[in-house]
Write a structure and sequence with these properties.
Blueprint: E1 5-8, H1 15-23, E2 27-30, H2 32-49, H3 75-86, E3 90-93, H4 96-110, H5 119-130, E4 134-135, E5 138-140, H6 149-159, E6 164-166, E7 172-174, H7 175-181, H8 193-198, H9 202-232, H10 242-246, H11 251-264, H12 284-287, H13 289-311, E8 319-320, E9 326-327, H14 335-363, H15 386-402, H16 424-455, H17 463-474, H18 487-498, H19 501-510
Parallel strand pairs: 1-2
Antiparallel strand pairs: 3-5, 4-6, 6-7, 8-9
GO cellular component, one term: cytoplasm
Keywords: Cytoplasm, Histidine metabolism, Lyase
Pfam families: Lyase_aromatic
Length: about 525
């Protein structure tokens, strides 16, 4: 278990901290600076609440109902009602790590001192996370504008001791019971607090941060499997020379080519065994691997830049400014995050597409330069990896559908008050599926390439390749031979890639890859 402690101040947080809280057991501490800032901003809200002038979120209704002034005796009910009414999600449960990221990022904004909540609210949300209490959040309910409203509302509901939540033991129980077990008092929300708990892009941002971490590993994994396929196909590594990539100076391309060159260092396969079918050039899926993976890496760098900016932001409406003004704004619009979520889905789809083309080439005896059809033990009697490629192709096709951008859509809501929305939550949900699909696609290429290399007799693979072969076989992924039940092997290869073991095996020889 990760016992890392994350200290929240007023200046945001880091991607590493988000992942430590979302995927690990990192504990959260609130700095004195944060608690002081929260108390200061709350004093401004209390002052405004005592005045007769209407202030959005403090003494008015919400959205299209903001025209109504709410009298003081109804304001606790107003804040409770917004949470209950907005907790209108439907569909499957959202994954625990997503909910924890969402809650932590909302807490990050509350701790900034720009939302006007009481310190009690901030402290109680931190207590829920530290206790491992995870509210039940549903798939549908966010348009990515005015915040991830329904998902955040389900989290706020648990803070009030209502709705359902999952305990640290994984059992779903009424939130009130879980709070009582852990000695946490439910919060009675006051002016501005219900709105402040709902009005952020935290769900889509949390999913972006985790997708960036996953894709960083997958881009490195794809460089490795591309190198293994090049090796298995007796390709040339001359196209990886750094001087070739220096004249088209995209940093991701250079990094991908350097990774591939490190994997292939010392191989007897590359560029010297083409007498049976001389090749001046390898096919695009081999020769252009660094260009495609590199473009994806540069896309990832841009997405990380956007994520870092959001991690330093305080997204709420209205916000409390340092001089005490409480101002309405549009910072809750999810467009910046939605765009890069969609962009990453495009990069993932193209990386999956080129990996599948390399796999298909390994299986086609007319293009594989001496390998048996479908890498079968006895082609005709055995089908080999024929249907593994079908599965990979189905995953690629799904990736292409997931690459259709969500952020170009907009459905007006709230009686046309919220007449343009980002659909960033939807972009994030489909990216999570895309990342998982890409992991499986790379696993199939790994499975095919390692089998093909082992079927080449009389040649010595690169030391890094040897390390991969040893590690993947040790992980239960079987090598060449007759047909067998293939699904378990593919699932083991998927777990090998997903768990970072492919990268670790190579780096044990090459040192750290980009």
């Amino acid at each position: 278990m990760d016992m890392h402690t994350v200290v929240l101040g007023t200046s945001g947080t880091t991607a590493q901290d988000v992942i430590a809280v979302a995927r690990g057991a990192a504990r959260i501490e609130l700095s004195e600076e944060a608690l002081t800032a929260v108390a200061t901003s709350r004093a401004f809200i209390d002052e405004l609440a005592a005045k007769p002038d209407p202030v959005y979120g403090v003494s008015t209704g919400f959205g299209a109902l903001a025209v109504r002034h709410i009298s003081p005796e109804l304001r606790v009910q107003l804040q409770r009602n917004i949470v209950r009414s907005h907790a209108a999600g439907m569909g499957p449960r959202v994954e625990r790590e997503v909910v924890r990221a969402l809650m932590f990022l909302r807490l990050k904004t509350l701790a900034s001192g720009h939302t006007g909540v009481r310190p009690l609210v901030v402290e109680t949300m931190a207590a829920l996370l530290n206790a491992g209490i995870t509210p039940v959040v549903h798939e549908y309910g966010s348009l990515g504008c005015s915040g991830d409203l329904a998902p955040l509302s389900h989290c706020a509901l648990a803070l009030m001791g209502e709705g359902d939540a999952e305990g640290p033991d994984g059992v779903v129980r009424p939130a009130a019971e879980l709070l009582a077990v852990h000695g946490i008092e439910p919060v009675e929300l006051r002016e501005k607090e219900g709105l402040a708990l709902l009005n952020g892009t935290d769900g889509m941002l949390g999913m972006l941060v985790m997708a960036c971490a996953d894709l960083a590993r997958l881009f490195t994994s794809a460089d490795i499997t591309a190198a293994l396929s090049l090796e298995a196909l007796l390709g040339t590594d001359k196209v990886l020379a750094p001087e070739l990539h220096a004249i088209r100076p995209h940093p991701g391309q250079a990094a991908a080519a350097a990774n591939m060159a490190k994997v292939l260092a010392g191989s007897e396969f590359t560029g010297h065994h083409q007498d049976d079918a001389p090749r001046v050039q390898d096919a695009y899926s081999i020769r252009c691997a660094p260009q495609v993976a590199g473009a994806g890496r540069d896309t990832l760098d841009h997405a990380r830049l956007v994520a870092d900016r959001e991690l330093a932001a305080a997204v709420d409406n209205p916000v409390v400014l340092p001089d005490g003004r409480v101002e309405s704004n549009g910072n809750f619009h999810g467009a910046p995050v939605a765009y890069v979520l969609d962009f990453l889905a495009i990069a993932a789809a193209d990386l999956g597409s080129i990996a599948e083309r390399r796999t298909d080439r390994l299986l086609d005896k007319n293009r594989s330069h001496g390998l048996p059809a479908f890498l079968a033990g006895d082609p005709g009697v055995d089908s080999g990896l024929m249907i593994a490629q079908y599965t990979q192709a189905a995953l690629v096709s799904e990736l292409k559908r997931l690459a259709a951008p969500a952020s170009v859509d907009s459905i007006p809501s709230s009686a046309m008050q919220e007449d343009h929305v980002s659909m960033g939550w939807s972009a994030a949900r489909k990216l999570r599926t895309a990342v998982d699909n890409l992991t499986r696609i790379i696993a199939v290429e790994l499975y095919a390439a390692t089998r093909a290399i082992e079927m080449r007799e009389g040649l010595t693979p690169a030391p890094a390749t040897r390390a991969v072969l040893d590690a993947v076989r040790g992980a239960g992924v079987q090598g060449p031979g007759g047909d067998r039940f293939l699904a378990p092997d593919l699932e083991s290869a998927y777990a090998f890639v997903r768990g970072g073991k492919l990268v670790a095996a190579v780096e044990s020889v090459t040192g750290e890859l980009a």
